[in-house]
Amino acid sequence: MSTDEEHSKDRRKFIRVATIGASAVCGLFPLVSGIPAVFDPVKKGAGKKSSVPWSRVAPLASLPEDGSPAKFEVIQEKVVDAWTTYKDIPVGAVYLTRTNNEVVAFNLKCPHLGCAIDYRKQTKDYFCPCHNSSFALDGSVTTENSPSPRPMDTMETKVEKGQVWIRFEHFRPNVADKIPLS
Amino acid sequence: MKLIFDWLDDRSGYRNLLHEVLYEKVPGGARWRYVWGSCLTFAFFTQVVTGTLLWMFYSPSTQTAWESVYYLQYQVWGGWFLRGVHHYMAQAMIVLLVLHLMQVVIDGAYRAPRELNFWFGAMMMGVTLALSLTGYLLPWDQKGYWATAVATNLMAEVPWIGTAIQKIVVGGVEYGHHTLTRFFALHAGVLPAMLVGLVFVHIYLFRKHGIHVKEPRPKKDSYFWPDQILKDAIACLAVLFAVVALTVYFNGAPLGPPADPANEFPARPEWYFLFLFQLLKYVPAFWGAVIIPAFLVLWIFLQPFIGASRPGHQLNIGFWWTLIAGSVALTLLAFSEDRSNLRHAAALKEADWQAKRVLSIVQEEGIPPAGAVSLLRKDRENRGRNLFAAQCASCHRYNGHDGRGYPVDDTQSAPELAGFASVEWITKLLDHEHYISDEYFGGTDFKNGTMARKVLFKYTSEEKELLPRIAVLLSDMAKLPYQDSLPEKEREELLALFYNDDLVFQDGLACIDCHDIDSEEEGYAPDLTGYGSDEWTVAFIKNPEDERFYGEENDRMPCYGRDSKLTDEEIQILSDWIRASPAN
User: What is the pLDDT of residue A47?
Assistant: First the structure.
């Protein structure tokens, strides 16, 4: 092969590589320019554990004394949803049960896949109408092959000046451990 | 790997297709003058991709449009960059459109057999301009709101169906939720879909007739791949570089204060529509909306036929150059008129202030469900300056303007109030020259009052030296948020000065003879107890004719509270605002 031919071959190769390179940069650039923005929610959730605020739920007196559960909305004082800041809006619901002055709070959402759990008065248990998970009054799973991998999710509660307060949280569905969503 | 590609080719025949696409013949070899079409395709591709990503963040309603754009711009990781690229690529697209058009016109590529493709190109230009126009409104900031209102009002100029078109586009008579949902549907759905369809037809027709070769041919024939594609890609990289540079330089696209129909803003379109804006100063709206566009459409339709002959081709080239030169001239004229217009400069500065103000409130309080515009409307600082501009600025000034930065046409006839009751302000007030100047009481009856003629005018130089100390005493009573309080001991000393005879004149007058401080009696002149304090200022604005202040001596100052010209809340806001900051 003569030097001229080799030179020409090298030149063609260079042009080819340069063209593919430049075209690839142009082709990928629009997508790349938006990747940080698209992955923003993942970045925002990573690495920081924000403290869960206390929310006032109900007066202690409004809970049945016999220990049967009652359902309440959880009103949070300040909720930031992307660009909007809401004040005093419902963020979810809980079942509260009372034993003397102790209050237990269960998240309304089923730990299986997040459907809303019903309380069945007649059988005195909790039942998820989506996939038939059932739970005892203490929140434990009652059937052996329950779709739910863990008991109903409890949250921290306190009673102050006759009012029940809770730290309302959601948890990762369908895993055996109770892991708060962040 | 080869097996997979062989299988794919066997099932799809992609290699043939690729060959067809890449090995288009380029007679006369690859040339830079052919790159504009590819650059435009790249620009449009960028807009489609970045636009789709922006879609993930945008919420079209009057309470969420600005807010979601704000969120993207300031809260989302890299959001400003994504938005900036979309914004500046849109502008690059307009420049590329003109370059592509002029290349086609100069090379004569619009003539037979390419007439149809020329018309399709012109249609694409129209769709691109419509995309710019609809995109301008979407952030729902003051600039987009007011400028697009002008554009949609022009639609009503179309005979018979104009108002119907306008209503369809706006989604009713007034700008609102429906305007945004419709503009968004047009911007992100209808118009891009049209453009995609037109691009396919345009490229199909282009491939059918091949590249229009500009003679003489510089080199021997080559193929699209890789020679021409390399040139295209380098040009696209240059466009990309320019867009990224603009985005980084300007920190992304601008975002003005949220749209507010009650808050005036000088409507200006994006720079590439400025020539039309300027033109409308000279011709009736009907010309701008109907006759000129209709003439352009007719010319574009006839252009391939006019250009069939050599003189006709020259005429076409001349037509477009004239059009471009005219547009450039009108654009420059628009810029220079705005630049020499003080009110326009003030309006831009005011919008800038509002944009910064709303950002600082949002960072403190967040955005309520009613939207960011409600924050500005409720903001006491913003209301204060607006109240001053509306109620006070026809006589008073604030740093020489109306409180917001606008120059005032009326002659100043009452004191400058920036830094009101501060040590500097009172020191100047107690100086005869300042007192009788327009900056203080030169425009009022007090210019010839006792204080001017019998007191300040007659001070000896020793007495004048004491006046700044009196100013310190009076200013301390104002308890201005930006001034430190006097130590009690110093205040006592200064009060003694106020009461004793150090400032007595030949005719025996002292401050205390007319003005009171901390006394039950009402003197002849305004009571200076708590002078410039919140309570004093509010009471004064409410009723300057009260015995405590000017009484019957009041010269034109309206009694805003007594005569119910302003509510108590508004007077309080005004007092807070006037007392909030020192003079510039």
Answer: 61
Give the nearest partner residue to A33 out of B82, B229, B367, using CB atoms.
B82
Name the band, by pLDDT with cuts 50, 70 and 90, for residue B221.
confident
CB spacing of A34 vs B366 below 8 angstroms: no
Which residue, of B251, B269, B287, is where some domain finishes? B269
Inspect the interface and report whether the beta carbons of A23 and B233 lie closer than 8 Å. yes
Question: How far apart, in whole angstroms, are the C-alpha atoms of residue A127 and residue A119?
Answer: 6
**CA distance linking residue B407 with residue B370, whole number of Å:** 33
pTM of the model: 0.91
pLDDT at A123: 92
Question: Is residue B311 a part of any domain in this protein?
Answer: no
Whether omega for the bond prior to residue B293 falls within 30 degrees of 0, making it cis, is no
Question: Where among B245, B269, B293 does a domain terminate?
Answer: B269
Is residue B378 domain-resident?
Answer: no
- Domain with B541 in it: 413-580
| pLDDT confidence of residue B269 | 93
**How many domains does chain B contain in total?**
2
CB contact under 8 A, B53 and A38: yes
A147–chain B nearest CA distance, Å: 34
Angle at B188 between CA A38 and CA B176, to 5 degrees: 105
Residue pLDDT, tens place only, B137-180:
999 999 999 999 999 999 999 999 999 999 999 999 999 999 99
Nearest to B56 by CA among A39, A46, A29, A32: A39
Tokens of B376: 């500005």
* SS3 state at A167: strand
Q: At what angle do helices B461-478 and B488-499 cross, to 10 degrees?
A: 130
Determine, yes or no, domain membership for B308: no
Q: Which residues from B are below 8 Å from A37, CB to CB?
A: 53, 56-57, 72, 76-79, 81-82
Residue B64 has pLDDT above 90, yes or no: yes
User: Which residues, other chains included, contact B258 with Cβ-Cβ below 8 Å and sequence gap of 6+?
Assistant: B66, B67, B140, B141, B142, B358, B371, B372, B373, B376
* Displacement of CA B286 from its chain's centroid (Å): 27
Summarised one tens digit per residue, pLDDT across range A23-59 is 999 999 999 999 999 999 998 877 656 688 999 999 9
pLDDT value, residue B501? 63
Residues 6 or more apart from B289 whose CB is under 8 A from it? Answer: B154, B155, B157, B158, B162
Q: Counting one residue from A and one from B, how many pairs have CB atoms under 8 Å apart? A: 96
